[in-house]
Amino acid sequence: MFISHSWQYNNTLEVLRTLINARAYFSATYEESTKDKPINSDSESNIKTRLTQKNGNSDIILALAGMYASRSSWMEWELDKAIELGIPIVGVIPRGQGKNINHSLYTINS
To answer: Which value, to the nearest 10 degrees, does the dihedral of the CA atoms of residues 53, 56, 61, 65 take?
Structure first.
């Protein structure tokens, strides 16, 4: 699984991982890059190539919504790439973030 998230709120990512890992009926392997395990490159092209691989290794994309997520060009790119690759996306709204969401990022137009 790949969790698309904003690095400004890394703790939200950790809370979601903890919730998933606490459920015995889930067996999750995480593909996203984090502050602790970044893609070490200054090249946007290299980063996009690596993120495409990580997305492609995933059965599902979880998209953490919220104020900073809706302003993240990287998150928007990750979700667009998931759509291009045909990977299902599930939006996750952290507690207290419902008012700050740009719903256009999380709506797929057919």
So the answer is: 40
